[in-house]
């Protein structure tokens, strides 16, 4: 009996327990583009979770230049490797900048959500908007993608992730597309009220 208990205790102490995790699946907006990773909003999210006592490991699976199709190609393996409790999807901006048909972007975002939910994860979708120089018709159709997907899939939505940053020059890099280091805390503050109920 003692040997059995000792063996079970040994197994419990030596086999790593799957950590509770949160995946951020995004593009350059979440990959700390042109700055140290420690300055990015995803790293700041980990710090806030730690400070507020949420035992979640944040896994930044963001890649600059990624599209929704790239995300689909990568998410399946990520889900198998980490079994996250929450998946934050920050994709679609690059699709829009490339003029991808909105119906294709919507379909891909829906598939990403289905994949995450099928693995038992909650989903937070970060909404995007395009600059007006892409034409009124296309930018309007693009802006409708995120609320439509969120409503269809019944997931939490941040209406516009860049709301506190996009029109503030100090919070943007010189390219006018990517947030600066100054803007990163504002990105976190924008998404946090929508994420916290999922924790």
Portion of residues within helices: 40-55%
Shape: globular
What oligomeric state best describes the polypeptide chains here?
A: single chain
Rg, Å, rounded: 19 Å
Proportion of residues in β-strands? 5-15%
Mean pLDDT: 91
> What structural class do the secondary elements suggest?
alpha/beta
Order of helices and strands, N to C?
Answer: HEHEHEHHEHEH
Give the termini separation.
Answer: 40 Å
SS elements, strand count: 5
Total of DSSP H or I helical runs spanning 4+ residues: 7
Q: Which sheet architecture does the biggest sheet show?
A: 5 strands, parallel
What's the arrangement of strands in the largest beta sheet? 2-1-3-4-5
Low-confidence stretches: 1-17
What topology does this entry show?
Blueprint: H1 2-14, E1 21-26, H2 41-51, E2 57-60, H3 68-82, E3 86-90, H4 93-97, H5 102-118, E4 122-126, H6 136-153, E5 156-158, H7 184-195
Parallel strand pairs: 1-2, 1-3, 3-4, 4-5
Helix pairs in contact: 2-7, 3-5, 5-6
Quick description:
This protein is of the alpha/beta class and 199 residues long. 46% of the residues lie in helices and 12% in strands. The protein has a 5-stranded parallel beta sheet, sandwiched between helices.
């Amino acid at each position: 009996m003692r040997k059995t208990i000792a063996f079970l205790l040994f197994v419990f102490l030596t086999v790593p327990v799957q950590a509770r995790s949160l995946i951020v699946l995004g593009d350059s907006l979440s990959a700390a583009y042109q700055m140290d990773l420690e300055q990015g909003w995803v790293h700041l999210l980990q710090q806030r979770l730690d400070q507020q006592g949420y035992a979640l490991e944040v896994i930044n699976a963001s890649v600059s230049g990624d599209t929704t199709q790239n995300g689909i190609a990568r998410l399946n393996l990520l889900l198998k490797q980490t079994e996250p409790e929450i998946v934050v999807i920050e994709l679609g901006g690059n699709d829009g900048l490339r003029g991808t048909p909105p119906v294709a972007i919507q379909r891909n975002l829906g598939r990403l959500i289905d994949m995450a939910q099928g693995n038992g994860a909650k989903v937070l979708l970060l909404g995007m908007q395009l600059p007006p120089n892409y034409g009124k018709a296309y930018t309007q159709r693009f802006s409708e993608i995120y609320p439509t997907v969120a409503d269809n899939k019944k997931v939490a939505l941040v209406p516009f992730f860049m709301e506190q940053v996009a029109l503030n020059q100090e919070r943007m890099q010189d390219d006018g597309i990517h947030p600066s280091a100054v803007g990163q805390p504002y990105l976190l503050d924008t998404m946090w009220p929508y994420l916290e109920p999922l924790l």
